[in-house]
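Re: the request from the purification team.
They wanted to know what the chain is likely to look like in 3D before they choose a buffer screen. I agreed to run a prediction and write the result into the notebook, where they can find it.
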Amino acid sequence: MKPLEAADAAVFFGRGAPIVEAIDILRGLRIGAPPRLIAILGASGAGKSSFLRAGLLPRLRRDDTQFIPLPVIRPERAALTGETGFVNALTAALNVRERADVRSATEAGAAALRPFLAERAEAALAQRAIGDETESPPAFVVAIDQAEELFHTAGRRESEVLLTLLADLANNDKPPIIVIFAIRSDSYELLQDAKALDGLRQIAFSLGPMPRGAYQELIEGPARRVEEANGKLVIEPALTQRLLMDIEAGAGDALPLLAFTLEQLYLDHHQTGQLRLADYEKFGGINGAINAAVTRAFARADADPRIPSDRKTRETLLRRAFVPWLAGIDPDSRTPRRNLASRSEIPRESVPLIDLLVEERLLSADTRPNRDPATCGEPFQSIIEPIHEALLRQWDLLDGWLKEDFDLLRSLDGLRRAAHDWNANARDKSWLAHQGQRLSEAEALNARADIAAKLDAADRCYLVECRAREDAVRSETERQRAVTERNQALVAAEKLRNDFVNHVSYELRTPLTNIIGFTQLLAAGGVGPLNPKQLEYAGFITNSSHALLAIIDDILDLASIDAGALELRLETVNVAEAMKAAAAGVQDRLDEAATEMRMVMTDGVGAFRADGRRVRQVLFNLLSNAINYSEPGQTVTLAAMRRGAEIVFKVSDRGRGIPPDMIDRVFNRFETFPNGSRHRGPGLGLSIVKAMVELHKGRVLIDTAPNEGTTVTCIFPIDPAALASGADEPGRAAQAKPQSAR
């Protein structure tokens, strides 16, 4: 199932028409404008590699005045510096340059490589045949086989550098560069979306399945070539017919399975000069070829004392070698994918069985110079991989393992990709992509030691950082949830308290009114004269009852506002009269506190539209508050002015001011702050002020400082009804929070 190479071009049959079509496209690209990118697309098993290596490139090499093909690049784990990477391919094409020079130029970028390429192109022109009038230099052809490997996690960094380099080279005419990608159709989207190739035109060349009518030529053509070369190789006609029947009846992978079957038959029986149907049937047939080869390997294992005799144990050893080292799942296409592994990575106890599968040609082994700094003590390393992805589908046992571990293998590859991106971006936290269920699935890999063994130090560090971030996010989320729940509980408790107080207030108002009425009746002598002491007590009862009634009225007002049921009775309010009425209401308190009051009005303050009762209520509460916080002999100031379309009231005292820690709670209901106050009320005064002013579409400001007193400013619009409903809500909301608070 290995792809045919250039040396096999003479026996490459069945793709003549697509080869001609592809060469015509390449000739058009050569004389056209850059960029020159073409992708050969086909399903796994369509024969893309053989088409490229044994069909297309050998013909381009013969046309050396137009094309200079580089040896085929296979990305594997090192698309630039690997044994089949770009540096070695370019070194071979330049011929007169040392590998170190080519590598240095590659690292420097396209500009450093162009002089090397131009020199080689000029040399090709100088060798053209006499009479050849070709003036334009030949185009270099960079062919990348199995280009889906460019997007595997292993070696991804070199792949990104290579794609960037090729994009720069292909987008220039000095000299012309054609880049060919042979890639699986289900991976082509990755190539289209590659950042390095963004904006560069690509031609898609689809290599469809081998036509059914071509299979007979594919089977018998190589034997004829052997005969033409004076060799002897006869394919029994019955074998040809049986192969064609089995191909027709097969479910898939016909081309790679046919190649594997014919190769096995040839290697085992070419000495006789004949391939026969009987040998084919003993071999297991085309559809049983893979499982038959595994059975032969297990039979040979009986002679190796290093290999356990129990079949289940052998299967376990093979599973540990294949999953995840030699086979995995492509997370993008969600299909099985063969992996490349060094011999040292495969579990040691599994190696003897792997060697038997290599001998059965189910796996390929290759020895290459070791450029891995982690194992620099060894000059060479052995690389092993499945011979074809058809093995992953046609070997029943392996197919079952991959299906069982499908989710784990997808998670493994996704984790390694994310860790690579995180590491390549200076381990920035914004590149930590695993969280929630995805993180839990990645951490579950540790429960499978055989799969987790493929995680390196960077992968594990990435997982630790993801978990730390997840725990921090969860902790913060839980903290925020606790704060939210606490706030909701506080709101609910406040509502319950307000509902209770409102309910009790409604129930108290009627009996309290009765108490006031009967007390006044007694004081007036309506039921007989009272002595002086009784009159004094009746006065105390009346005053206290009025004070309690005022508190209840405040509570009911706030309840009405909360319910949206309190309506303003707008009228024309004379500012001077409202101030005088409020001052008269606090005269008794001024006398009791030995405090003076001063009223200040600017000229032309006039009147405004408001609920007169509520304005007087606001001023009364502010004056009462200021008096409570003033020392004997101090002065409380009530001032008013007209400012544009607003009326501004200011109430100032020279008391102790409001401590900074109390400012944010000054408008809260039932909040009281003694701080030198003579009377500790229910804590509703400023709540009422704020609610009433805002009901008028106004706002309240507070200016205070310790030991310097407090000024409360209430700003009313001249006509609140003229304001559009809610039009100034944002402004009002912004002003609702005090500058300082009592």
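For the purification team: Confidence is low (pLDDT under 50) at residues 724-742.
Please add any questions underneath this entry.
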